Amino acid sequence: MTSGEGQTPSQLIDGRIKELDDWRGAMLARLRGVIKKADPEVEETWKWRGVPVWEHDGMICTGETYKTVVKLTFAKGASLPDPSGLFNSSLDGNTRRAIDFHEGEKVNEKALQALVRAAIDLNISKVKTKAR
After folding, report:
1. Fewest Cβ atoms closer than 10 Å to its Cβ: which of 19, 34, 87, 107?
2. Among 2-11, 38-47, 83-92, 94-103, the least confident range
């Protein structure tokens, strides 16, 4: 795993993608691209000793990699509309929801972009409410 000293969060995420030299790296790169397409101004951060995080006025989602899945966990997923039924993991909690992507699985990019934008809209609405 990359030590990360002196690297930006985006460089650390690049490093993680390279170090995962199998389908998981390719999937994480693809998901990252979908997130950036949904929000070109997204801020990439690196938390909890090695977890890529995407933020816009608060956390949108994390990108965790495991042996058999790449997991996008949406911080406020339970509050988001999911008409395409993307959420397939962490469904019992009151706050988070996740999507587990398996090897060879197709990504519904349009639906994922809509979910990312909904998370951003929710974050922005919370920021505006606090500002009042």
Report:
1. 19
2. 2-11
pTM more than 0.85: yes
Write out pLDDT tens, residues 104-118.
999 999 999 999 999
Beta strands across the sheet bearing 51-55: 43-47, 51-55, 59-65, 70-74, 97-101
Helix axis angle, 9-19 relative to 23-38, nearest 10°? 150
User: In the 3-class helix/strand/coil scheme, how is the chain assigned residue by residue?
Assistant: CCCCCCCCHHHHHHHHHHHCCCHHHHHHHHHHHHHHHHCCCCEEEEECCCEEEEECCCEEEEEEECCCCEEEEECCHHHCCCCCCCCCECCCCCCCEEEEECCCCCCCHHHHHHHHHHHHHHHHHHHHHHHC
Residues in Cβ contact with 72 at an 8 Å cutoff, skipping those fewer than 6 apart: 31, 61, 62, 63, 98, 99, 101, 112
pLDDT in tens, 56-70: 999 999 999 999 999
